[in-house]
Each structure stands twice: as C-alpha cells, then as structure tokens.
Amino acid sequence: MTPPTGFKDHRAASAQGAAPANPDRAERSRFSLTVNGQERTLDVDHRTTLLDALREHLHLTGTKKGCDHGQCGACTVTVNGRRMNSCLSLAVMHEGDEIRTIEGIGTPDNLDPMQAAFLQHDAFQCGYCTPGQICSAKAVIEEIREGIPSHVTGDLTAGLEMSDAEIRERMSGNICRCGAYSNILAAITAVAEERG
Predict the structure, then answer these.
(1) In terms of CATH architecture, what is 28-104?
(2) Within a 10 A sphere around the Cβ of 168, how many other Cβ atoms?
(3) Which InterPro entries does this chain map to (predicted)?
(4) What secondary structure does DSSP assign to 66-125, as a single string?
C-alpha cells in the first residue's frame, strides 16, 4: 500500500536509520563495592541486578532468587545498613556501597544470635527463604531501635516499642511458603529481648 502524498512512512525511515542491534556489545561497567567486609571488583553488563551479581559473579549463593519481582524477600540483603530486595536493584548502582549477605552474618562454628535463634525456635522448614528472613530480621530490630516508623506505628512522638505488630508489619515483605511465621516472630523477639 502506498502512503498518501506528503505522508512519511516512519516505519521505513526508522528501520533504515537504526544502528544494527548487537547483543554482544552490551554496555558494561567495572566498579568496586564492599561485600561482607571485603572489597570486590565487578565488570558486569549494566542490566545485571545486584542479586545476579552476588550469585553469578561473586558466587555468594546464600542470597536466593525467589520471585525475581521484589515480592517475596528471598533476595534480601543489606546495603549500607538498610535492607533491600537485591533483585530490584542494578549492581552498577552500588559502586562504593557496603553490601552484607547471609554469608557475612555468621558461620556454622560461630552463629550470629539471629541465626542461633532461628535454630532454637525452629523458625524454618525448607529453608529457602531463611537467608532473606535473617537479613531482614536483623535490619528490622535496628529500624525499630532507630525509631523509624512503620505502617502500624501509632504515636510518632513516643518511642517505638518492639511489639509483635511492629515486627510482623516490617517482616511482611518476606514470604515463607512453609508458614513458619509464628516461629520466625519468636526468634526475632528473643534476639530483641536479649539485646535489651
């Protein structure tokens, strides 16, 4: 079909003027970040998520890929002390940042108090979500101690309490398909009470 007089066929023009797509020439960046106290250098495609950089490039597979849409919390890590879903963040955005994954929290011979509490309170079943749960749980305690309000926080002028409601609300982004929620709550509460 011939376009009407004076009409420019943009499809043909854009197809002719476009540079050929070359997936082998993806944009990459080389940058450094600190992971679990150790400076690491990455050279990755700009589209690489922090989660994939940790798992595929740094071989830190404790951080799990669950939904890959920021809805399950299995990929939770801390960045500069704040928790985040690593599947929703590009690795190149974290140049110079301090990343803490489950591998940087404790060891089998020297468990972090939160890891020990999860064991003691049987706060896991299949264990797939546990690394993200533990990373998130540690950050939740710090958020409450720092007075950062949540959706269920009542009086913003009073100090925050380490209540079941606060912990549940803050942990609501971490899904446990096995349903170990009451035991997870007990583990977090035990650690919070030990720390006073």
Answers:
(1) Roll (3.10)
(2) 16
(3) 2Fe-2S-bd, 2Fe-2S-bd_dom_sf, 2Fe-2S_ferredoxin-like_sf, 2Fe-2S_ferredoxin-type, 2Fe2S_fd_BS, Aldehyde_Oxdr_Iron-Sulfur, Beta-grasp_dom_sf
(4) SSSSSSS-TTEEEETTEEEEGGGSBGGGGTT-EEE-GGGT-BTTB--HHHHHHHHTT--S
- Phi/psi at 153 (5° precision): -65, 130
Q: What is the pTM of this model?
A: 0.84
Name residue 157's amino acid: T
For the domain made up of 113-195, give the CATH fold.
Answer: DNA polymerase; domain 1 (1.10.150)
Residue identified by tokens 């992971």 is 35
Query: How do residues 84-115 score in pLDDT, each as one tens digit?
Result: 999 999 999 999 999 999 999 999 999 999 99
Euclidean distance between CA atoms 81 and 93, whole angstroms? 16
All structural domains of the chain with their residue ranges: 28-104, 113-195
